[in-house]
Amino acid sequence: MHAPSEEWTARSEAAMLARAVALADREIGPRAAAVAEQDTFAWETFRLLCAEGIVATGFPRALGGTEAPMRLRVRIIEATARVCSAAASIVTGTDLAGRPIAAGASPGIAADLVPRLARGELQSAFALTERLAGSDVGGLASTARREGDGWVLDGVKRYITRAPVADWFVVVARSGEARGARGLSAFLVPRDAPGLSVGPIQPKMGWAGVPIAEVFLRGARVPADALLGREGGGMALAQDTLVRARVGHAAIALGRAQGAFEMAAQWCGRRRTFGTRLGEHQGVQWMLADMATRIEAARCLVYSCAERYDRGEPDVPTYASMAKLHATDLGMQVTTDCLQLFGGNGYLKEFPLERFMRDAKLNQIGEGASEIHKSVIGRQVLRDAAAMRHPCLDLDAFEARMADTGGAA
Ligand SMILES: Cc1cc2nc3c(=O)[nH]c(=O)nc-3n(C[C@H](O)[C@H](O)[C@H](O)COP(=O)(O)OP(=O)(O)OC[C@H]3O[C@@H](n4cnc5c(N)ncnc54)[C@H](O)[C@@H]3O)c2cc1C
Predict the structure, then answer these.
(1) Distance from the CA of 64 to the center of ligand 1, in angstroms?
(2) 240-290, pLDDT tens digit by residue?
(3) d(Cα 193, Cα 343) in Å, to the nearest integer?
(4) DSSP code of residue 226
(5) pLDDT of residue 407
(6) CA 305, CA 250: separation in Å to the nearest integer?
(7) Closest to 251 in 3D by CA, of 337, 330, 333
(8) CB under 6 Å to ligand 1: residues?
(9) Helix (H, G, I), strand (E, B) or coil at 296
(10) Spacing, Cα 368 to ligand 1 middle (Å)
(11) What is the DSSP pairing of strand 124-127 with strand 168-174?
(12) How far is Cα 109 from Cα 225, in angstroms, rounded to an integer?
C-alpha cells in the first residue's frame, strides 16, 4: 500500500490503479447488487476501500493521507463506478468534508481529525444545501451567531450524504450581514453537539448504500474554534471541495457509462433476433459505435480536466463544469440506450442496467445541476469573448463603418 511518506511515481500510480481495478472486479462488483437492495451505508465496501488505501488518496500527505494526483483519482473513481455507484460515491465523498477540515481547522483539530478520516475511523458529511437553497447557494438561510466564546447555529440542511453515519459535519451558514455567498461561513460540528440532530434516511431513486438525511440545527452550540477558515470565507474554503466533487461526478458518470456499455456490447454479441446476433443489425452497430466514441471523448475531457487541476490552472472550475455537464448527460443517455438494447430484460432487477440507469440521474443533479453548469460555462465564454480578437473578424472596423453611415452594430 502507498505510504503517506512516499511521493507518487508513474509506477506507484499504475500499481494503485491496478489494485483499484482488481478490487472493483473481484470484490465490489460482485456485491454491488446486494448493496443496492437496501439504502443503509455500505460499510463492507467502505472497509474494502479503506483497506486498499483508496480512501486515504483524498487526504493531504501532511495529515495522514496519501493525496493522489487528480489524474489518478479520476481513474480510480472511474474503475469503481464501472461496477458500483455507492463505492464510487465513497471514494469521492469521503474527502468532501475532509478537505475543508484539513484546510480550515486549527492545526490541532486538523491533526487530530484528518488522519482518522483518512484511515476510515471517522466519517464526515458536507452540509450546504437547504430546502430553499440548492442551486442558489447565496439564498442559504441557516444562521450562525456569536454567543459567549462560541457560535450558535440554526437551520435545516437537506439531502446530506452520509449524514446517517457521519461523526462530524461541515455546516455552511450565514454568519453576518453580508448578502449572498460573501456572508457564508463554514463550521465544524460534531454529531453530538447539543442542538444537532439527524433525520431518518430519506428514501431515494438510486445510489443505495450512500444514504442521505436532513440535518437539524436548533440552537446548536459549538466553540469558537469550530469556525473553519475566516468568517465570511465559507464558500471560498469550499471551492476546492466543490471543484473536486464536480470532477468526481464526471468520473463516476464516465465509469458507469463504460460499465453499462461493456455489458450492452457483450449482450449484443450473444442475443439473437431475426436469425442473427443483435450486434449484426446495422442500427445496433451504429448505436454501439456512437456510444464507444462519445464515452472516449468524455474520458479525454475528464482526464484533461484532472490534469489541469494537478497543474493548478486557474480556469479549472470552468473545465470541471464542462466535464461534469458532458459526462453526466452522456452517462444518462448511455445507460438509457444500453438498457434499451437489453429489451425487457433491461427493465428487470435481475439485470444491472436498471440500477445503472437510476443511479445515472443523480449525477445530472448533485453538485450543481446540468443547467447551472451550462450557465457557469456560458458566462465564462462571454467573459473570455470580451477579450477575443479573431483575426478574420474586425468588429471595431464594422462598428466604425456603421457609425459613419449612421447605423448601429
Ligand atoms: C442524492 C443526493 C445527495 C446530495 N448530497 C448532498 C450533500 O452531501 N451535501 C449538500 O450540501 N447537498 C447535497 N445534495 C443537494 C444537491 O447538491 C442539490 O440537490 C443540487 O445542487 C440542486 O439543488 P436543488 O435540489 O435545490 O434544485 P433547485 O435549485 O431547486 O433547482 C431545480 C431545477 O431547476 C434548475 N434551475 C435552477 N436555477 C436555474 C437557473 N437559473 N437556470 C436554469 N435552470 C435552473 C436546476 O438546474 C434544477 O434542474 C444532494 C442531493 C441529492 C439528490
Answers:
(1) 33
(2) 899 999 999 999 999 999 999 999 999 999 999 999 999 999 999 999 999
(3) 51
(4) G
(5) 60
(6) 10
(7) 330
(8) 126-129, 134-136, 159-161, 204, 207, 212, 362, 365-369, 371-372, 375
(9) helix
(10) 6
(11) parallel
(12) 9
Collapsing DSSP to helix, strand or coil, 273 comes out as strand
**Per-residue pLDDT reduced to its tens digit, 71-89:** 999 999 999 999 999 999 9
Percent helix, percent strand, percent coil in the chain, to nearest 5: 55, 15, 30
Q: Mean pLDDT throughout 398-402? A: 94
Q: At 276, which helix (H) or strand (E)?
A: strand 276-277
Closest residue by Cα to atom 23, ligand 1, is: 134
- The type of residue at 106 is S
* Beta-bridge partners for 126: 170
For residue 253, CA distances in Å to 366, 369, 405 come to 12, 14, 54
What does the block give as the cell for 168? 462530524
pLDDT in tens, 155-175: 999 999 999 999 999 999 999
Q: Give the phi and the psi of residue 229 in degrees, each rounded to 5.
A: 70, -150
* Residue 202, C-beta contacts closer than 8 angstroms, at least 6 positions apart: 159, 211, 212, 213, 214
**121 pLDDT more than 60:** yes
pLDDT tier at 106 (50, 70, 90 boundaries)? very high
**For the segment 30-59, what is each residue's pLDDT rounded down to a tens digit?**
999 999 999 999 999 999 999 999 999 999
Of 176-185, 207-216, 288-297, 343-352, least confident by mean pLDDT is 176-185
Alpha carbon of 135 to ligand 1 centroid (Å): 5
Confirm if 29 and 79 have CB atoms less than 8 A apart: no
3 state DSSP class of 181: helix
Cell of 98: 475532509
Task: Please provide the average confidence, as pLDDT, over all residues in the chain.
Answer: 96
The β-bridge partners of 223 are 150
- For the record, the C-alpha cell of 64 comes out as 495522514
DSSP string, 40-69: S--HHHHHHHHHTT-GGGGS-GGGT-----
pLDDT of residue 177: 81
State yes or no: pLDDT of 151 exceeds 60.
yes
Beta pairing class for 212-223 and 143-147: unpaired
**DSSP state at residue 139:** G
Give the number of C-alpha atoms closer than 13 A to the C-alpha of residue 185, restricted to the C-beta side: 25
DSSP strand pairing (227-228 vs 150-161): unpaired
Catalytically active residues are 367
Reference 63, options 91, 92, 104; nearest CA is 104
